[in-house]
Amino acid sequence: MAYGITHFFPGGTQEQYEATIAAVHPSREKLPKGQIYHAAGPTAGGWIIVAIHDSKESWEQFREGILIPKMSHGINGGFTAPPQETAFEVHNLLP
Questions:
Q1: Fewer CB within 10 Å, N side or C side of the chain?
Q2: pTM exceeds cut of 0.90
Q3: Using one digit for the tens of pLDDT, what is the confidence trace for 11-56?
Q4: Cα separations in angstroms, 36 against 19, 45, 54, 66, 67
Q5: Rounded (5°) CA angle 37-94-83
Q6: Segments making up each domain of the chain, as ranges
Q7: Which domain of life is it from (predicted)?
Q8: DSSP 27-67
Q9: Model confidence at 95, in pLDDT bands (50, 70, 90)?
């Protein structure tokens, strides 16, 4: 079952997003293994990221193997604090 994650970074900016995504994604043209959707943009009070993974397990592998290690060491110009996270099992996903 697909698994969704939202990350809201209070006070986050596009510049911080660009620095962070460059550090945690393989490229601008390719998503991490298991991720099938990625969207991000400004919202009231900060920056939001929405990612859909093909399973909860692939999200956990990405989180534990890439995201947390890179962010815990700090990303030059990236987000400076952990996000507010919401996770959910995807009920409906259209192409």
A1: C
A2: yes
A3: 999 999 999 999 999 998 999 999 999 999 999 999 999 999 999 9
A4: 21, 27, 6, 16, 16
A5: 35
A6: 3-8+22-89
A7: Bacteria
A8: -SS-PPTTEEEEEEEEETTEEEEEEEESSHHHHHHHIIIII
A9: confident
CA angle, 36 as apex, 56 and 51 as ends, to 5°? 65
- CATH topology for 3-8+22-89? Alpha-Beta Plaits (3.30.70)
Taking only Cα atoms into account, the Rg of the chain, rounded to an integer number of angstroms, comes to 13
Residue type for position 4: G
Tokens 């990350």 found at: 7
The tokens 């969704």 sit on which residue?
4
